[in-house]
Design a protein that fits this description.
flat; four-stranded antiparallel sheet; 2 helices; 34% strand; two-stranded antiparallel ribbon; alpha+beta; Alpha-Beta Plaits
């Protein structure tokens, strides 16, 4: 099964981190990504640009409305993701717990819906 590991954190804290702290975080993510790739469980993963670059799209009464910024004001913002292919939810949760961002933010684990080619 495939699971999305959605990484949430408070992006406002980045400005208060030293260069050394940021380097340690990047190093931890590099090691985690390498471990995930070596295991064969990694399908994809990326970091996202800061929330200031987001645009939210809504369609209401056939009118497209766009708003600068994220969908909602929250303490934690979506900062990146990993898509993993593992045998169980328990295994996905184990990988989620190893994500460096889980130490100061949160990781949401969600199964991916797989559709057959005929649309079912």
């Amino acid at each position: 099964m495939q699971y999305m590991l959605l990484i949430y954190g408070d992006q406002s804290q980045r400005g208060s981190m030293s260069e050394e702290e940021m380097g340690q975080i990047f190093q931890a993510y590099g090691a985690y990504t390498q471990e995930l790739q070596t295991s064969g469980a990694m399908v994809a993963g990326d970091a996202l640009q800061p929330i200031e670059t987001a645009t939210t799209v809504r369609v209401r009464n056939d009118e497209t409305l766009t708003t600068d910024g994220p969908f909602a004001e929250t303490k934690e913002q979506l900062g990146g993701y990993y898509l993993v292919d593992v045998s169980s939810l328990d295994e996905a949760l184990e990988w989620a717990a190893k994500i460096p961002g889980a130490r100061h933010g949160s990781v949401e684990v969600r199964p991916v819906m797989i559709f057959e080619e005929d649309g079912s």
